[in-house]
Amino acid sequence: MIRIEPRAKVSNSSTIFIPIIAAIVSLLFAAIPIISAGANPLIAYVEMAKGVFGSVFAVSEMLTRATPLIFTGLAAAIAFRAKLWNIGAEGQLYLGAIAAVTVGSGFFDLPAIFLLPLIIVLGACAGAVGMVAPTYLKVRFGADEVVTTLLLNFIIIIFLQMLLEGPLQDPMGLGWPQSAPILDQGMFPPLIDRMRVHSGLILAVILAVIAQVMIKHSVWGFKLRAVGENSSAAKHAGININRSLFGVALLSGGLAGLAGVSEVAGLKGYLTADLSPGFGYAGIVVAMLAGLSPIGVLIASVFIASVFVGADSMSRAMGISSFLADLVVSVSLLCVLVGGFIAKFKIVRAGTGKKIL
Amino acid sequence: MIDILNILLTDSFWAASLRIATPLIFGVLGALICERSGTLNLGIEGIFVVGAMCGWMATWLGAGLWGGILVAFLCGAFFGLIHALLTVPLGLSQHVSGLGITLFATSVSYFTYRTALPDVSSPPRIEPFQPLDIPILSDLPFIGLVLFQQTALTWLALIMVLLVWYVLNRTNLGLAIKAVGDNPNSVDAQGLSVYAIRMWAIVIGSALMALGGAFLTMSAFDAFFFGMVNGRGWVCIALVIFASWRPGKALIGALLFGAFDALQVRLQTEMGALVPGQVFLMAPYVLSIAALVIAARSADYPRALLTPWYKGQR
Fold first, then answer.
1. What's the rounded mean pLDDT across residues A122-150?
2. How confident is the model over B59-107, as pLDDT tens digits?
3. Radius of gyration of the CA atoms of chain A, in A
4. What is the DSSP letter of A348?
5. Is residue B48 part of a domain?
6. Inter-chain contact A326–B111, Cβ cutoff 8 Å?
7. Domain range for A133
8. Is B136 exposed, middle or buried (0-12, 13-18, 19+ CB in 10 A)?
9. Given a cut of 80, is residue A146 above it in pLDDT?
10. Is residue A81 part of a domain?
11. Which residues of B touch A137 (CB under 8 A)?
12. What is the domain-level CATH number for residue B48?
């Protein structure tokens, strides 16, 4: 029989190697569905790589895809650090987008220097509002935030559909359920001429760096860790748990809201109910791959975005369903979980105590 | 108000309520078994998708309706086994593992569907389960339509409620399942395997969840569509808490939800001109949150829920 024992110390390098190995394993795993779809996996991998790194355009597409993932990844990473299970980034993303098109599509005809910051701030606030109810219900009534944030995703999307057929519908939109476009001066400026990658990416990177510094070197970061790791000890240390939780919740919701702002004011220009192909849920995978580290989120977003963009382009070239990307992403999440286990525990043979892994 | 009363008095309304409740009954029972043994299973949403896809596709490929149900059951058990391995012997985060299972199960189903049917815009249809036609009983006024003209799957769900109640409350196995969810050390001290009991509970629970999904494609509709599960799994997680982890209350919770959903559809057609239809579509999710909030305070959580247990470590 085998037995599981905690390792004496968790090596530092494991936090870097585990996600890398998880990513590689998940890509290798993709060979199974590719073969089952009747294609040659080697050719498929080459097609994927070409689709991500084959040209400036490809890299731009990948970074465009990574931008919202950085925001939702940060949202999940910060909340999960405090053991606040915000699974509602998808809904908060849409709240941010709703705020962005509401103020950005002509409600305020301001010059760019005022309009874009206004859109960003209000979008973040709207996303944060999405976390108020779940956090209040958790703190006041003990209602599990996993369930409330998940269910809110559905409520918000239906609410959005209502807005898009009502007050937010573009009068010039020929009856399609879409919002009026954001004014030109309210859009994130593009980073490269005639490419889709936009300056929302810069905002995302800056926020990731700020979050990293805050978590590692500020009192707030210490509180965040204390609340997450041992909330009763944190209480003894005089930390107001509820207030800290609300702070984390609002921040997390705000970051998710920015994902919506950046998609709508950086890429699409107007809002539809299919703005996000699950960026909120993918953000959870990003955060886990990143080991909940904000800088790690940047790297993990690039990986996940590469999988999506690469699979899209392979799908066009070879006719394999692009759901392959979702498959790889979900497998990478399960792999990184198992990797975290191997880093913390060793498996020994019960009789002899001989180490197996 | 008269309108609502009129609706509540019709037999077709109560028949619809029970029909809508059926997948939730399977789902709530499945989640209840997992959680009673100490493991939260957020894989439920994805396992619903797997059940819906596999059951329907197996039937379409010629396995027959009950063959499809068996395939759905086994596929659900398979994904449950992954969750069980990750959360029980490895003791990994039940939240993250469950979400991972949901993402994995959903993408496997969607990928398989797209690979099997690359070019279709609307999926092929199967001959779904037909309403029962029992002599005399099906022709009774009111309850004939409500109870005896449902499909066999609804009856299977109701029987499962009884079965789960019986096993949990009247057998040693049920005692053991509840004990590993409350105090695993006591079970270990009796020489029973905590790992085995917890893992079997998750596998069987997940298999039941998949039947809830299969009901959607094999009884409620006759084909598989993307996004057709639409949060039903998450609703079940809320309903388990509402039900305080009791099978009887789980049935009541699912029926209340079904009745409410049936009511909103009917109100939507009657009041559609006055209120946007989306208000009614939102209502079931709002109701689930409300149910959760009402029950959360007094909920009698299995004491070891979310707590991993390692052999030899006290």
1. 95
2. 999 999 999 999 999 999 999 999 999 999 999 999 999 999 999 999 9
3. 22
4. E
5. yes
6. yes
7. 64-290
8. exposed
9. yes
10. yes
11. 289, 292-293, 296
12. 1.10.3470
Residue numbers of the domain that contains B160: 10-123+149-296
Count how many domains chain B has. 1
Give pLDDT < 70 ranges for chain B. 1-2, 272, 313-314
- A4's enclosing H/E stretch is strand A2-6
The CA distance from A336 to A245, in Å, is 26
CB contact under 8 A, B282 and A281: no
| Cα distances (angstroms) measured from residue A298 to each of A74, A78, A205, A264, A287 | 9, 14, 7, 21, 10
pLDDT in tens, B269-308: 777 677 888 888 898 899 889 988 988 877 778 988 988 8
Residue A136 lies in a domain: yes
- The torsion angles phi and psi of A193, rounded to 5 degrees, stand at -55, 135
First to last CA, chain A: 14
Asked if residue B194 lies in contact with residue B180, where contact means CB atoms within 8 angstroms, the answer is: yes
Residues of chain A contacting B285 with CB distance shorter than 8 Å: 151-152, 154-155, 158
Q: Which residue has the higher pLDDT, B275 or A40?
A: A40
Complex prediction ipTM: 0.93
- Number of domains within chain A: 1
Say what the pTM is.
0.94
- Asked if residue A77 is part of any domain, the answer here is yes
Total beta-carbon pairs less than 8 A apart between chain A and chain B:
135
Task: Please indicate, yes or no, if residue A301 is contained in any of the structural domains.
Answer: no
Q: Where are the beta strands (DSSP E) in B155-246?
A: none
Residue B301 lies in a domain: no
d(CA A49, CA B169): 57
Contact yes or no for B279 and A162 at CB 8 A: yes
Which of A121-130, A131-140, A339-348 is least confident?
A339-348
- Closest chain A CA to residue B46: A330
Q: Which residue has 């759901």 as its token pair? A: A323
Spatial contact of A332 and A284, defined as CB atoms under 8 Å apart: no
Is residue A348 pLDDT above 80, yes or no? Answer: no
Helices (H) and strands (E) in chain B, counts: 13, 0
> Quick one: B86 exposed, middle or buried, by C-beta within 10 A (0-12, 13-18, 19+)?
buried
Tens of pLDDT, residue by residue over A242-286, are 888 999 999 999 999 999 999 999 999 999 999 999 999 999 999
CB proximity list for B93: less than 8 A, separation 6 or greater: A337, B87
